[in-house]
Structure formats: structure tokens, C-alpha cells
Amino acid sequence: MEWVWQVRFAGVSAKLIPGVNGCLLVGANLATTIAGRSHPLRAGAESDREFFRTLRSQADLILVGGRTFTAEPYRHTPVPIAIYATNKLVDLKLNPIARVVSGDLGDVIAKLQNAFGGSAKILCEGGPTLISTLIAANLLDQLFLSRSTLAGDSDFFDVNITNEMLLASNSAVLARYLKH
Questions:
Q1: Residue 69: helix, strand or coil by DSSP?
Q2: Does domain 18-174 have CATH number 3.40.430.10?
Q3: If the chain, 180 residues long, is cut into consecutive pieces of 10 residues, what is the mean pLDDT of each piece?
Q4: What's the confidence (pLDDT) of residue 92?
Q5: What DSSP state is assigned to residue 91?
Q6: Where are the domains of the chain?
Q7: Were 155 and a residue from 32, 136, 139, 174 both cysteine, which residue would form a disulfide, CB within 3.0 to 4.6 Å?
Q8: CA distances (Å), origin 176, targets 30, 78, 142, 166, 179
Q9: Torsion from C-alpha of 20, 21, 23, 29, nearest 10 degrees
Q10: Which DSSP string do the residues of 13-55 spell out, in sequence order?
């Protein structure tokens, strides 16, 4: 798999492509959480919130891992949300349009695509384990990384799995990677 990078500055609109798009906020030390949540990192990434809102507005479906769904506030989402989980212990009461999906990740992605006519814009909001798994399985078509100026304390993102993709240097810059 070969990746190319393009640096996107704040204010440039993000564009999802048909397929699986990933977005992830990483800390200055590549951690994705502080005390188990990504929200505290947003204080060091001011442009991040609006950028991710723009991505969400284009998505047909949001995909997250079970731990991300449990830790983050997914009570209201503008589109259906699929939670990729290996167990059924995820509490869906908070979001009536959320569904748990499991099994082979390639099969799950194919079923999700087929549910939307085969050309869905799926937005995977992580976490780092799910994003890394999608990259390793060659299932991620585009990745947006936003880097906070704050350091996190857990759930580190392994940049080696991205073939040493370039990371943005501060919160004003977002990096976008396309699979070729």
C-alpha cells in the first residue's frame, strides 16, 4: 500500500470520498486520549472541532470502535453509527440509531457499503486500534489526522503502521492521506 500526503490548513474544507475515511485526533506525543477520553486533547487543537464537524456533515455512516463509543459522547449523531465490537456489551440506550457490528472487518465494511448502495461515505472516528486495523487490512481509503499541542496519556497511535505518514506539526495544520 502506498500513501501520499497533502497538508491541509485550517479553513480549507475537508472532503470525504466514497469508501472508508478515517479521522483521528492525536496528542503531541501521539496519545489519543487523556484520562480515557479524546475531548481534553481538543483544547490544544482549536481547528479540530470544526474540521471534524465538516467531515461528519458529509458522512452516510459513522464507524467507531466499542471503547470509543463507550468513552465518548455519541448520544446524538447526524447519521447512523456502527460500533465495531467483539462483544455485545456496548450499551446502545444513549443513541437510538446506533448498531453493533462484529465479525471479519472486511466483511463488515462490505455489508455497511452494500447497505448504502455500494458507494457510502463511511467516516471512521476511531479509536486508534480500529484505525490501525483498517490500515493494516488495506480497508482505509483516506485518513485525516489532527495533532493537538497537548500530550495525552494513553491509547497511543502507532505511526509505523501508516508507513511513516507525515503528521501535522500543530493544531493549525491537518494532514490528509490518500491510499493509491
A1: helix
A2: yes
A3: 40 76 86 79 70 89 88 82 78 74 93 90 91 87 82 76 42 48
A4: 67
A5: -
A6: 18-174
A7: 32
A8: 16, 23, 7, 9, 10
A9: 80
A10: PP---SEEEEEEEE-TTSEEEBTTBSGGGGGG-TTHHHHHHHH
